[in-house]
Amino acid sequence: MKHSATSMKTWENCPRLFKAKYIDKIIPWVPSPASERGIKIHAELEEAVKTGTEPSVWTPKGLVQKLHAVGATTEGELAVDENLHPVPYKSPKAWLRGIIDVRVVRKARALVVDWKTGKVRPDKIQADVYTTLIQATENVEKVDFKLVYVDQEQVVDLTRDTKSPYRVKLLAEKIEADRDYLPQPGWLCRFCDFTACRYNEKKGA
User: Fold this and answer.
1) Which end of the chain is more exposed for a tag (fewer CB within 10 A), N or C?
2) Radius of gyration over alpha carbons of the chain, in Å?
3) What's the distance, Cα to Cα, between the start and end of the chain in Å?
4) Please, what's the b/e burial string for 124-151 (b: 16 or more CB within 10 A of its CB; e: otherwise)?
5) Could you tell me if 92 and 105 are in contact, meaning their C-beta atoms sit under 8 angstroms apart?
6) What is the pLDDT of residue 73?
7) What is the per-residue pLDDT across 75-129, written as a single tens digit (0 to 9) for each?
8) What is the pLDDT of residue 203?
9) Inter-residue long-range contacts of 107-112, CB under 8 Å, 24+ positions, other chains counted
10) Which of these ranges, 27-41, 59-73, 131-145, 166-180, has the smallest mean pLDDT?
C-alpha cells in the first residue's frame, strides 16, 4: 500500500472515505474554487522563489528573496520504500511519497516551507511525513518545518522531534491492518464527496 500525508490524514479523519478514495477509487477528484485558487497561489509562489520576485499574496517580509538567494528547491518530489530508502517518486517500490513546496538543505540541517491557504489548521501528520522524507532522502538530522498561511498572514512552526519516522510507520501499520474501514461521522461530513455514505450531509443539496 502506498501512503502520503493526504491519504494518511484522510484515514485518520474517516477510514470509510479513505477506502472509497484510495482503495476502491470511486471518488474522482473534482477541483473546487478553493482548490483551484490554492493551485494558482502555489504556482505563483513557486515562480516567486525561483525568480526572487515579490508575490501578490502575503508572505513574511524578505522570505521569498532569502529562499531565492540560497537556491531553494521548489515542488520537489520525494519518495522512500518501506525501509525508508530513497526511490524515484514514480517507482513501484515507492511506499511513502510527498511533494515538498520549498526545501533548503545545508549540511545536516534542512528547512521545509509549506504554503497554506484558508484557515490555520496545523497538520502534524504532514509535518511527520515530510520530515521523514527529508531525513531519508537528504541524509539530514534536523528538519525545521514552517507552515506559511498566506490568507491569515501567519507562520506556524511545526518542527518535529526525532520520532517522526516512528510515528509515520506506526500510523501506516494501523492503516494497512484496517479491514473494516468504519465511517467516522462528524463535522467533516458536510464537506464530503462520498455521497454513498449514509452520513453524507450533501444528499439532496
Assistant:
1) C
2) 18
3) 35
4) ebbbbbbbbbbbbbbebeebbbbbbbbe
5) no
6) 96
7) 999 999 999 999 999 999 999 999 999 999 998 899 999 999 999 999 999 999 9
8) 55
9) 107/140, 108/140, 108/141, 108/142, 109/140, 109/141, 109/142, 109/143, 109/144, 110/134, 110/138, 110/140, 110/142, 110/143, 110/144, 111/143, 111/144, 111/146, 112/143, 112/144, 112/145, 112/146
10) 27-41
Instruction: Please report the DSSP string for 97-129 in residue order.
Output: EEEEEEEEEETTEEEEEEEE-SS----HHHHHH
Residue (of 40, 165, 188, 5) closest to 115 by Cα position: 40
Which string of DSSP letters, residue by residue, matches 159-175? Answer: ---TTHHHHHHHHHHHH
Structure-block grid coordinates of residue 25: 477509487
Domain ranges of the chain: 33-184
Assigned CATH for 33-184? 3.90.320.10
DSSP single-letter state for residue 19: I
pTM over 0.90: yes
Is the CB of residue 11 less than 8 Å from the CB of residue 175? yes
Instruction: Indicate the DSSP class of residue 12.
Output: H
In angstroms, the CA 68 to CA 73 distance is 9
Determine the 3-state secondary structure of 94 from DSSP: coil
